[in-house]
Amino acid sequence: MGFERVSRAELREHLVRSAIAGEVATPREGNLRHYGRMVAKDPGFQFGLRLRSWSFDETLAMMARLCGVNPNPDHTWGVDTIDPDLTLDALDAMGERIGAAAAERATVLLATGHPDTLLGVYRAIEDALRAAGCTVLTPAAGWSYEPPLWEPSRYREIAYASGVAALVGADGRWRHTHDPDPMRAALAELDGELPRLVVADHGWAGAAGEAGIETVGFADCNDPALFAGHDEGKIAVTVPLDDGLDPIVYQPLTAYLLQRAALG
After folding, report:
1. In 83-229, at which residue ranges do the beta strands (DSSP E only) sit?
2. Comparing C-alpha atoms, which of 239, 203, 29, 194 is closest to residue 112?
């Protein structure tokens, strides 16, 4: 897929207009609830990271600093925000990491817990990395399991859209997940031959970062664990964005990211 070039100013305008950043649809009350669950060490909100103990106030302050949510603890309901400039800065940093891997013709692994919305972003990155000579790993295809109780379905299986890992249910349809276990299974199958770079989100990213792999990922403002992982040095880059929108709105963002990686 080809993309037209996008300037930083043009992408910033698009991020706000499309609500990828700026005022987003992810509600404030949900954000605060998820921050509390991360603080309480709820496994569904750790994303496979062994995080230090975080207080709620620390978490809110960190999310304001790294994601751009409203820092006021008295704002408990309604609209919340993602700072588009933080999104752009993180895309710049992610692009540099992807570009460095491409220049090395490195081994990479791509995976998403949001296949219904973000798969096109990952597929474009995959195509660009393959064209640059990278090896895209596809371990543990067909691995299946019964997820933990906090996941909504009782059967999940690793499937690949070309070289991008995601989960499917018993009906073969893509499934959203926070679970780190599929990435752990994928890395175990590699038997120590780990990828140079992982591009992922949710538990896929958290488990890779916890394993010591250079990991860059995307996260919504209700996903504090990956931002905490970045703050602790386990996740190289976490890009803040609303991860639940129509796939087409991410095309300018994808174009900008590939430009920053010198792969556009």
Report:
1. 107-111, 135-136, 144-145, 156-161, 164-168, 174-175, 197-201, 214-219
2. 203
Both tokens of residue 96?
């540099």
Task: Give the CA dihedral 28, 243, 194, 47, nearest 10 degrees.
Answer: 30
* In 83-231, beta strands by DSSP E: 107-111, 135-136, 144-145, 156-161, 164-168, 174-175, 197-201, 214-219
* CA-based nearest residue to 142, from 118, 168, 117, 164: 168
Sign of CA dihedral 96, 2, 203, 208: negative
Tokens of 233: 């040095």
Residue 239 backbone dihedrals phi, psi, to 5 degrees? -95, 120
pLDDT digits (tens, 9 = 90+) for 123-142: 999 999 999 999 999 999 99
In this structure, are residues 242 and 82 in contact, taking their beta carbons and an 8 Å threshold?
yes
Contact 180, 203 (CB under 8 A): yes
Q: Distance (Å, rounded) from C-alpha 216 to C-alpha 143?
A: 24
Nearest to 114 by CA among 9, 235, 8, 250: 250
What's the CA gap between 257 and 4, in Å, rounded?
A: 12
Give the model's confidence band at 148: pLDDT under 50 very low, under 70 low, under 90 confident, else very high. Answer: confident
Contact in structure between 98 and 129 (CB atoms under 8 Å): yes
Sequence-distant (6+) residues with CB within 8 A of 52 are 232
